[in-house]
Amino acid sequence: MTEILFILLYSVIMWLVIEIAVVLFAATGLKKPIARYQVISMITATGFTTDESSLIIDHPIRRRISAAVILFGYFSLAVMISSIASVLSNDLRTNLLVIIIAVFFAIWMFLKNKIIPSYLTNKFEHEMDEEYDLEDWPLKTALSLDENDMVAEVEIKEDSEYTNQACENMILRGDDIHLLFIKRGNVILRKSLLEEKLQAGDRIMIFGDKEAIKNKFAGMLVDEHA
C-alpha cells in the first residue's frame, strides 16, 4: 500500500513540475497548449518531436527551461522505476514527499498570480534584449507576430499564375502580407523585391495575417509557422 501511495505522491510532484514549466514557457510567449504538450514530451523522455518543438529549440530562454525539465524527467523516470521494482517508501519518505508537494504547490500558486506572469514576461523580454542579438531571436518573436499572424513559405511552380510576373502583382500593397526575401536556388534575393520577376522554383518567405495568407496562397504554401 505504501508503494502505491509513494507513486501517487510522486505523480503529483511531476504534475506540479509540468504546470510550473508551462507557466514559465507561457511567460516567454509560447501558447499554453503547445507548452504543455512539449513539457510532457520532455518530462516523459518520449523524444516525440513536432514542428512546434522548433519554437523551443530556437529560443534561448526556452532552451534553459527545457533543459531543467528534461533533467527532472530523467530523474523521475529512475525514481518511478525503482519504486515499482522494490519497496522504497516508508513513513519518513512519505512525509518528505508531502513536504515536496507542498513546496511545489506553493511555487505553482505563486506563479499563477496575475502579477508574476507579467513580471516574468517583461524580465524574459529584457534578457533577450540585453543578452542576444536580434538575429538570434526566433523569427516570430523578432517580427512581433500575434496570434492572428503567421510566417509562411510560398513556392512558385511552372504552372503558377505568378510565373514571370513581378512580385508586386502577387503581393498587393493593400494586402496585410509582407515580403521578407526570395530564395532562388542557393541565392537569397533581398533587393527591389517587388519589381523582381518570379521564376518557377522560387520560394518566397512572407509574413502577415494568417487568414489572408491561407486564402490567397492556398495550395502554394510549403512551410508555415502559425
3D architecture notes:
By secondary structure, this protein is an alpha+beta fold. The chain has two domains: 2-131; 143-225, Alpha-Beta Plaits (2-Layer Sandwich), CATH 3.30.70. It contains eight helices and five strands; from the N terminus they run αααααααββββαβ. It has helices at residues 2-27, 32-43, 53-57, 60-85, 91-112, 115-131, 139-142, 210-216; strands at residues 149-155, 177-184, 187-189, 203-209, 221-225. A five-stranded antiparallel sheet has the order 3-2-4-1-5. β2 (177-184) and β3 form a beta hairpin. α1 (2-27) packs antiparallel against α4 and α1 packs parallel to α5 (91-112). The longest helix has 26 residues, at 2-27.
Mean pLDDT: 75
Order of helices and strands: HHHHHHHEEEEHE
Low-confidence stretches: 133-137
| Rg, alpha carbons | 24 Å
What percent strand? 5-15%
Secondary-structure-based class equals alpha+beta
Strand order of the largest sheet: 3-2-4-1-5
Shape: elongated
Helix content: 40-55%
Biggest pleated-sheet summary: 5 strands, antiparallel
End-to-end Cα distance, whole Å, is 48 Å
What's the total helix number? 8
Q: Count of DSSP E strands?
A: 5
Instruction: Estimate nothing, just give the exact number of structural domains.
Output: 2
What descriptors fit this protein?
226 residues, Alpha-Beta Plaits, 8 helices, alpha+beta
Can you lay out the helices and strands and say which pair or pack?
Elements: H1 2-27, H2 32-43, H3 53-57, H4 60-85, H5 91-112, H6 115-131, H7 139-142, E1 149-155, E2 177-184, E3 187-189, E4 203-209, H8 210-216, E5 221-225
Antiparallel strand pairs: 1-4, 1-5, 2-3, 2-4
Helix pairs in contact: 1-2, 1-4, 1-5, 1-6
